[in-house]
Amino acid sequence: MKLPTRPARVTALVAIGLASVLAVSACTDNSVSTSSTGAADKTLVIDKSFDLKTSDPARAFELTGSIVDKAIYETVLDFNGSDVTKVVPGIATFEENADNTVLTLTMDGTHTFSDGTPVTADDIVFSLQRVQGIAGNPSFLLDGVTVAKVDDKTITLTSATSNPALPFILPNPSLGIVNSKVLKANGGTTGADDAAEAFLNTTSAGSGPYQLESYDVTTKVAFALNPNYAGTKPAYSRVVLENVEGPTQKINVQAGSAQVALDLNADQVQGVDSSVKVLKNASPYLIYSWYNQDPAVGAGVTNNADFVKAVRQGIDYSKLLSIAGEGSTQPGGMVPSMFLGAITSDPANVFDIDKAKASLAASGYSGQPVTFSYPNDITVNGLQMQTLAEAIQSQLKDVGVTLTLAPSPISTFLDAFRAGKLQSGIMYWGPDYPDPADYLVFNPGESLGLRAGWAAGSDATVTSAADAASAASGDDARKTAYEAWQNAANATGPFIPVIQPGQYAVTTSEITTLDLNPVWTVDIADIK
Amino acid sequence: MSRPDLQNPVPLDPALDAPTAGAATRLRFAAVRSRLRLPSAYRRPMAVIGFTIIALWFIVAIFVPWIAPFDPLAQQFDRLQPPGPVNWFGTDSLGRDVLSRTLYGARISLPLALILVVASAIIGSVLGAIAGYFGRAVDEVIMRVADLVFAFPTIILAMIVTAALGPSLTNAVIALLFVSWPSYARVMRSMVLGARSREYVVAGRLLGFSPFRSLQRDILPNVAAPVLVLATLDFGNAILLLSGLSFLGLGATPPTPEWGAMVADGVQNFSDWWLAAFPGLAIFTVVVAFNLVGDALRDSLDPRTAGAVQGVKI
């Protein structure tokens, strides 16, 4: 008889291997010797965890793609530094008509492409129509917009309905202006038959501060100065954006082999060497909790207004902020803190356990378990959704609410969430463009509202506030209207804005200026 | 006539009697000792260490409410504190005591691994015995299904099953049951194939035993030992697989203090080594202990491997 010996050996080997890994991890020393390279060679090395797919602006809609395109291409309108509440001129200045349906761009005529030719109105029309025609990821930005040339200096963007968000959409690097003559010579069209992507991945055809030196979607993208750039010359003559994961970025920036690290999370930032600088900002990603209003899904619990009120008052937001780390913030409403119309706080979303218990008692809740779903393979700016879910479960337990956590992979989660079948849970929303109009989907009958079972016509107050916000014109009026909408939604709505995680950039001491922007993360040309 | 030697028996020489009595006592004690004595395989230091560790873990699993210093779910301490006088194993990313969670983890992992091993041993053995005893089409069908399961990597197949059923510990056990029975079926089938033509089995059948009675009375007792060894050795594997599924987010649902899930939490915070190290060590000790015991069990049941282990030429 031959007795089995192999399983024993295999499991023993696995166990010993595991022990070795643990021993090594236990002995890892966090302190790394620090050295600093000067900026004398004028080369800037930026570490980023790549999600790069293409550098063609009409096709790119990834974070890394935005960094690349922001460096190579100019846009018709722009933002200054990290302020996305105010639109500033780019290649052109703008004016809107009274009902926000026609936006007129007027070029200043000073911008030139890297090949020395001037940027023309035809280039703008071609570039924007190309984004629409290719129907790639960013094409939705210009949905319902007709681009037309009026004269050599003037272009109109006409929207079918009032579109006050359009000026905030136009600075998106995906709407960067390309050299139409060069592109047409290399397969570029304004339709689905466009074949210029391969060309744009090797040669840049923009008027931005840099041009492509080398491009590899998996390892690094190198930039050289655009000699014909019309704006202020950047501080660094050469920039290398390299694909490095978070923990290695930390080592690189501490050792001085990279000057900027963009993907460290709150806990990694805590342990960095004192010789490097840490820039902390709230990220534009908003993590929210929802409670399904559909009686069939809510089962009389989450569709009870007092129950949702109890949850709002029962979440200890300051404790969640301490878990998320420095730089994180509690948004007052569904619009992130850095956008026009954001509210800093709302009395409805303040932790008060006594009020929460009173609201829960008023709801008639009798301890039945509430299923709380979330994607367990997602981290938002390094913050795990699972960590937040566990914290909220523990906090609401003190109030008397029994949450049953239901983690699932994002793909499985999204199917059920989009179908509006999940009783409650936690999820995040990343902005498509930095304008509060992007958040009107969190309304009764709208796409996100329906995911929480919030049917059209179920909340007249919130709907009329949303309609007023949508129709408002001018920054001040829009700001007031969006604030009113969020206050109304916080009073009776199923969405609870929970937290905006921190966003961090770690730099060596030689870097004096770096702005984190919610649209393009970082403008390489502005780093000094 | 009297027999003086009987009337006046010669007193026994104490000098002669004492050793005889002592020898008899020693023999009696030796007999008792030999009855109580464990086979030498179990008395080797490694086996003793294995048994001790397993015993300690089972004691922990039973008495953990009295042993653990804190509530494993209470988020009551500062986050990510390294091991110290209050929290011996540090605290996790939500301020929970890692020591308490590691100890409570024994209550999850050990019983589930036990259930998994026992259930897969029973299912695999029954199917293997049926295949081996009846042969022909029954054998073909059962063993081809087993081959089918063998054709996939264990953990991948378990992941597919758990992903389909949804993440939970119950579903993880079902998934692992699905992938772990064939090894028992194979061993049992080969043993039954050898035993079914033995004289005592044939004699039983001639006496009118039904196939199941024959399997139960004559065959099973004679083929159970290898399955028992396999089960013991498989226990460590079961712990690893269960932890592996939890590590991948397909086993224990939070906030359950399961070792694999705790290691996964630690991997997210790699610089805070204590998060993964202690639950990892718990997995390591249990797995190694069961392998040591499994080796001892195998050696005691198979003289050939026992000799090989002890360096005796066979």
The fraction of residues in strands of chain A falls at 15-25%
CATH topology of chain B: MetI-like fold
Share of residues in helices of chain A: 25-40%
Which residues of chain A form runs of ≥5 with pLDDT under 50?
Answer: 1-7, 21-40
CATH fold assignment of the largest domain in chain A: D-Maltodextrin-Binding Protein, domain 2
Number of strand segments of chain A: 22
CATH homologous superfamily annotation of chain B: MetI-like
What spatial form of chain A do the alpha-carbon principal axes imply? globular
Provide key terms for this protein:
heterodimer; A: 528 residues; alpha+beta; D-Maltodextrin-Binding Protein, domain 2; Dipeptide-binding Protein, domain 3; seven-stranded mixed sheet; 17 helices; 32% helix; 20% strand; B: 314 residues; mainly alpha; MetI-like fold; 0% strand
Explain this structure.
- Chain A: It is found in: Cell envelope.
- Chain A: Its main location: other.
- Chain A: One of its GO terms (biological process) is peptide transport.
- The complex is a heterodimer of chains A (528) and B (314).
- Chain A is α+β, with helices and mostly antiparallel strands.
- Chain A folds into 2 domains: 261 residues, D-Maltodextrin-Binding Protein, domain 2, CATH 3.40.190.10; 215 residues, Dipeptide-binding Protein, Domain 3 (Dipeptide-binding Protein, domain 3, Roll), CATH 3.10.105.
- In chain A, a hairpin with a 2-residue loop joins β15 and β16.
- The N terminus of chain A is likely disordered.
- The termini of chain B are far apart.
- The N terminus and C terminus of chain B are likely disordered.
- The chains are: A alpha+beta (528), B mainly alpha (314).
- Chains A and B meet through α1, α13 and β17 of A and α7, α9 and α11 of B.
